[in-house]
Amino acid sequence: MFSSFFPRPGLFFLSALIWTTICTLGWYLGGDQIGTLFGLAPPVPDAAPVIGLGYFITPDFLAFYIYAGLAFTLFAASWMILAPHPWQWWSIAGSALIVFSDYYSVQVSVALNDWRRPFFDAVQDALDGKGTVTTGDLFRLIIIFAEIALVWMVIYVATRFFTSHYVFRWRTAMNDHYLSRWPDVRRIEGAAQRVQEDTMRFASIVEDLGISMLDSIMTLFAFLPVLAALSVYVSELPVVGVIAEPLLVAAVTWSLFGTLLLAVAGIRLPGLNFLNQRVEAAYRKELVYGEDDETRADPMTVRELFGNVRRNYFRLYFHYAYFNIFRGLYIQADNIFAYVILIPTIVAGKITFGILQQILTAFGQVSSSFQYLVNSWTTIIELLSIHKRLRAFEAQFEGRAQSAIEKMPVGAE
User: Fold this and answer.
1) At residue 191, does pLDDT exceed 90?
2) Quick one: which of 74, 61, 71, 73 has its CA closest to 35?
3) Ordered alpha helix ranges (H), 266-298
4) How far is CA 106 from CA 99, 156, 211, 359, in A?
């Protein structure tokens, strides 16, 4: 699954994580000054945000992308030179480009969040009847929103288009790897399904799940500083009282609680999905044999195989029932959680309507990013079951030992 597309996958992903950590620390420990080497003005602490397209050409913004571009180029070039791979332009350079462009898309969301304060403050002033806001002021802010949104749309479409091609190349690499071993592979039960259907589903889910995971990580990088800055407007939290960075602490604590809750509630689902594919495959295989051989697919055998399918599905329904109870309760509570923690601040009148909108948006972005597992758990379960099947498939033709669940006889679950 991975070695066909990435060079030395274990080391590659570990080095990517280490390099990202080093570069992130480097940025906050002085890397933000790199723009001065290219003639850009040094960063100004606590500078007022630039509203509109000018945000994308500020010295701080350009300095970050110079720094990130150099970091990505150095990482990609090192791997291409030290561990060349047939798919390296897609797996290494392509991965760097996707991360690079996805973070740009998230920065557009930050620009939109900066726009919310002046717009909603203007709306509040207009509704108060103070007469200080004209229709021209509101239309001007709407046009600024449209300009920023257009940038987001262009980046979003281009990134998704490239990602689709990237993932299909990954599927192509897996397909070529399995077909190169076809004389050995073809004798394995369900080989055709593993090579065609599972690689197709693996690629499709990785595209959807990978994009959402990358968006979540990039959103955290972009919005955590925003939420920390907005914490100055919130002096205390209900029950907890006065703490440092209250919005940040609340978002992280609430999101980790939801993640752990859903992880515990759904811990059995990946294995059950894997077993479900096994009983379905056994039932389908017997029916296929029955098309050409009248001695196969007799009523008793087929009824027994379908009984295995029925038993496993009913077991899945039971476990999904209580999982969905916990998931539903958490999601509904999440809809009002930000308002609950802001009640003391709202009642005290310490923030304007524009700041409230900024806080709600930034809080929602950070909490939803931390809740990646909560929002994607069902899809993750499906991907894990596919991963188990492909691992078992590869273990068979590579002569590796299989896990206990993979060796379990069908129907003995």
Assistant:
1) no
2) 61
3) 269-292
4) 11, 10, 12, 17
DSSP for 179-224, please give it: HHTHHHHTTSTTHHHIIIIIHHHHHHHHHHHHHHHHHHHHHHHHHH
> Smallest Cα–Cα separation from 37: which of 12, 2, 62, 71?
62
pLDDT band for 397, please (50, 70, 90 cuts): low
The number of beta carbons lying within 10 Å of the beta carbon of residue 333 is: 12
pLDDT band at 398 (very low <50, low <70, confident <90, very high): low
Q: Residue 120 pLDDT > 60, yes or no?
A: yes
- Angle among Cα 173, 179, 180 to the nearest 5 degrees reads 90
Q: Is 403 left (phi over 0), alpha (psi -120 to 50) or beta?
A: beta
Which pTM does this prediction carry?
0.73
Query: Quick one: how far is CA 33 from the chain centroid?
Result: 30
Distance (Å, whole) CA 136 – CA 148: 19
Q: For the beta carbon of residue 349, count every other beta carbon within 10 angstroms.
A: 7
- Residue 216 has, within 13 A of its CA and on its CB side, a CA count of 17
The token pair at 87 is 């798919």
Which of 99-113, 181-195, 267-281, 393-407 has the weakest average pLDDT? 393-407
Tokens representing 361 are 């948006």
Burial tier of 173 (Cβ tally within 10 Å: 0-12, 13-18, 19+): buried
Q: What value, to the nearest 5°, has the Cα angle with vertex 262 and ends 413 and 341?
A: 170
As given in the structure block, the two tokens for residue 49 are: 């945000």
Cβ atoms of residues 148 and 108 within 8 Å:
yes
Residue 145 token pair: 């929103």
DSSP string, 74-100: HHHHHHHHHS--TTHIIIIIIHHHHHH
Phi-psi region of 399 (alpha: psi -120 to 50; beta: other; left: phi over 0): left
